[in-house]
Amino acid sequence: MSMTSNASPAKSAAEIDAAAADWLTTRYDSGAWSEENQAALETWFAEDIAHEIAFLRLEAAWERANRLTALKFELTEAQPKSRSTQWKALFGSVAALIALGAGAFEYLSRPHIQTYATDIGGRKTVTLADGSHIELNTDTHIRAEIARDSATLWLDKGEAYFEIKHDPSRKFVVIASGRTITDLGTKFRVKSQADHVQVALLEGRVSVESSDAAGKPQKAVLQPGDVAIGYSHSLSVISESRKDLEDDLSWRKGTVVFDNVSLADAVADLNRYNTKHIVIPDPAVARRRIAGTFRTDDVQGFAALAQDLLKLRVDNRKDAIVISR
Amino acid sequence: MAEIVDQTFDAEKRRPGVTTSPEVRVWFVREVIPLEPSLTHYLRRNWRNESDIADLRQEVYVRVFEAARTRIPDQVQQFVFSTARNLLIDRVRRDRVVPIETAADLDLLEFTRDMPGPERNAIARDDLRRLQAALEKLPNRCRQAVVLRKIDGLSLREIAQRMGISEKTVKAHLNDGVRALADMRYGEPLAARGEP
Predict the structure, then answer these.
(1) CATH number of the structural domain A254-324
(2) Quick one: how many helices (H) and strands (E) in chain A?
(3) CATH 3.55.50.30 spans which residues of chain A?
(4) E strand or H helix at A210, and its extent?
(5) CB B131 to CB A67 under 8 A?
(6) Does A6 touch chain B (CB under 8 A)?
(7) Which of A67, A240, B109, B172 is most buried when burial is the number of CB atoms within 10 A of its CB?
């Protein structure tokens, strides 16, 4: 064909594009990218500049498509219903809070999706390249896709505390059970539970976006002290005292603080940190209230206190600790 | 005639094996790729054969990229469009078959009117709507795979499970999606869309 230059092998733009797309989708698959892959890609680049150019061009478009998160709702509407639960399918609608500017990116960085996880009872601090910190509480799973102009984190389960270095040229978005939390410069905590998501703001500003039963977008911009609570079809915001906010973060020091909560709530929280659970079969007992600070791994201490203070019976079995009258 | 930036290209200058610095890559993505709608428009206007356009564009990119590896040009638009112009002239001279329109006014290949003005730095603006439109044009299954990958952050394996198809098929859908999104994003000239 007449278009190819004398110096380059006779490959059409379309053929090169096809190959580049294949490299790209491999590279962007979570966790699949190795040093060997990177070396092979560099070799492919070295064969012909057109290879590298095609890859860059496609990658730029693909990176820019990150802002598709903003279309979440319309897209899920347009699609056939998936088999996932209603809760999952309802992935909130999301506003267009996405960085502009051409998609330059950390080109040579390693796999674009990083996974951070803790086991039951575990705790971990992750520092991102920009100096932002994320602390993962017990039994937590986070995936992070970091690009130059955006960072998207999926809180798949568990709880995490975020201290984000605000950068106007880079949007920081956390997606938890379909809620989108966009950082506007800030310290906040996100907890994903079976039927609801909690977002507590300590400093700065975040917006939380979700959708109601009719699929209409809902959005709340939180002020410090606000806690947004989203159930499948509702999003509400309450205010908490500084002390309550901090108590809810005491896990960062390895403790939990209970301030006049029911035994049921306290136990549910404590059980998140331990494989050996406390069980309270009697609802009347579960309604009794308790206060105190406990080490997250100290179920025995908690049980002992319940025994002494509330005059309850503690039965330390092999697989569980049963509290009863 | 607008001034032509002096640039000479020959086969020897293409040096396979030379690695590109990150600066050049970032520069290319930030400064050059956003010009693509205008560049494509320019090429279409001056070249008869539509099926050559993608290859011509690729060759322009190769020349620009190659030059930038030595030194990043200051005047990006000027450089890109004069490269395109020179390429067209080379083609006309080299090829036995000369496109009629092109031959008629070879010296009048005017590129300045295709260059985006300062306010038009091509694509950044109405991105979201444009992206949405591009997405809607994708075939159903392809779109679904792109959405699951991009928005839900699922891996190939998870998408395969969700859609009930093989990982290989998911990959094929994504490959198509990547290319289609790029072509739709960059392919159409803004001017043709009645942009202000």
Answers:
(1) 3.55.50.30
(2) 9, 16
(3) 254-324
(4) strand A197-211
(5) yes
(6) yes
(7) A67
Give A121 to chain B, closest Cα distance, Å: 26
Average pLDDT for A111-139: 85
Locate A65 and state its tokens. 């498509």
Task: State the Cα–Cα distance between residues A317 and B5, nearest whole angstrom.
Answer: 84
Q: What is the largest CA-CA distance in chain B?
A: 59
SS3 A79: coil
What average pLDDT score do residues A66-76 get? 50
- For chain B positions 55-114, those within 8 Å of chain A (CB to CB) are 55-59, 61-62, 65-66, 91, 95, 97
A vs B, Cβ pairs < 8 A, gives 178
Across A78-104, average pLDDT: 28
Any idea of the CA torsion for B31, B33, B36, B38, to the nearest 10 degrees?
-10
* Paired residues of B169 in beta bridges: none
Share of chain B above pLDDT 90, in %: 15
Model pLDDT, residue B116: 64
The architecture of the domain spanning A112-245 is: Sandwich (2.60)
Window 132-191 of A, Cβ < 8 Å to B: 143, 145, 152, 154, 175
* Domain boundaries for CATH 2.60.120.1440 within chain A: 112-245
